[in-house]
Design goal:
By secondary structure, the protein is of the alpha/beta class. Helix content is about 35%, strand content about 15%. It has ten helices and 14 strands.
Amino acid sequence: MIYPVIDGAESFFIKGNSVGLLLFHGFLGTPQSVKDLGEQSAELGYTMYAPRLKGHGTHYKDVEKGTFFNEEKMHQLNYKGTFFSVRGPLNIARSIQGQPVIVQAGSSPSGQRLAARTAEVVFIHKDSKEEAKKYYRSLKSQMKTFNRHPESLAILQGISPIIGRTEAEAHEKYTELQRLLSPYEGLQFLSGYMGNIDFTKYPINMLASEINFPKVNGIQSQFDEMKRIMKEEKLTVGDLYYRFVGAGRKDAFVGTPHQIADEMERWIEEGAADGFMLQCPLLPEGLEDFVQYVVPLLQKKGIYRREYEGTTLREHLGLRKPKNRYGRSVYKGSL
């Protein structure tokens, strides 16, 4: 079953309710400190949003008495770590889905370990289906270390579908969108992912692989993959903003509705992803085209729902409701 997320992390906060918690693994500090910070952030997030009351039915509102909960059954967090010290508890009621969905973006070895231990959804942006399959197998295999079932985590690949009535029309749309790019703005944006290097001081026709890039701690996996692509595809400095910053990749998701639906099905069947994060380069047209022309084909294939089975993000993603650590289990089995 395909699980779609539209346009990234902003989707996780709906009508004032926190329905998902997004973890970015890394940016500043040494690799070890980044790893420790990521793990403690996840642990604290679980602790804060976990059920905080003993038993069931103990969270209530009594307007006349001015009470919101039974104080005798409230648990303090008293969390102490290297980076955080939080007495708690969180001053909101327990989420109807148990706790927000834990979402992570990061593919480095330490990021994978954190995801295998804590994440319920992982965003990836792999350059090819084969690269995605390697990552998928690697991450899912690590989950048994933490007594977790592979199905308790969904891996979503970011795609930028560009749809045309014919393959040629789709490629024309792609080319037109690429022409709208500003080389200066594109290289400036890309610089933030590659050690804040100033690309403007290099000749446009210089091979990008010849640049002496500074060491980067943040988003290491993406940085390494971009350098690999530069070398393999012999990209020049002038190619970089088209290749990495443009209107998505010129891949199998640029084509007719049938071609795109077939490719999505192949990613699922071959174990490259559990679902997709749609990053349409042109809104709202790109999303409207996808919903109108691609979704019906996915439904006919039986890999996309026709009706919602629940009302929460957790239910939409096919994830189990977490156990109440202070009371009875809300579902049988374990993650």
